[in-house]
Amino acid sequence: MTSRTNEAALERRQRLRDKHKRQLGAVNQLERLEKKRGSIEDDRDKQIAKIEEDAARDIAAVEEEIAGAVRDAVDAFGGQQVASENLGLTLREIRRYLAEGDEQEPDSEGEEVRAADEQGPAVSKEAAPAGSPVDADGVQSDAGSGTPEGVSAT
């Protein structure tokens, strides 16, 4: 009877060992899958961050390009109000783009703008000297630069 009991106990132990081995294998497999999933999530997060950075750079470049176009339009139309009407933008938007452009300008051009601003205020049509070009806004244009006085070249 003891030999049967020993055999049964040995078989039971072996079954328990096999069961335990399968459980450890399942736990190891789960840990590998979780690690892989974490790695995939990290890669995805890195890709998302890169896409967001690229998008932010692209948006900044487009905003800078728009600011340059608005500056050029203000110069071409001779004033913010006229540019606003022709571009279909509000004065607030025009001024925002002009301010953004001012932030992007190097200091050397900023000094030129300050020097132009120090030349004096805009001249009304009535006070404009004979033969001097004055636009519809009553701004006398500076013959040397092609930019109206009182209007920032930026």
Textual characterization of the structure:
- The protein has 154 residues and is mainly alpha-helical.
- Helix content is 71%, strand content 0%.
- The protein has one domain.
- The protein starts with a helix and ends in a 36-residue tail after the last helix.
- The relative contact order is 0.08.
Low-confidence stretches: 107-151
Helix/strand-derived class?
mainly alpha
**Rounded average pLDDT:** 76
Number of strands: 0
CA gyration radius, whole angstroms: 37 Å
Number of domains: 1
Total DSSP helices: 4
Shape: rod-shaped
Distance between the termini: 105 Å
Question: What are the SSEs and their pairings?
Answer:
Elements: H1 2-77, H2 80-87, H3 91-104, H4 107-118
Helix pairs in contact: 1-2, 1-3, 2-3
How would you summarize what this structure contains?
Helix content is 71%, strand content 0%.
Name its key features.
154 residues, 4 helices
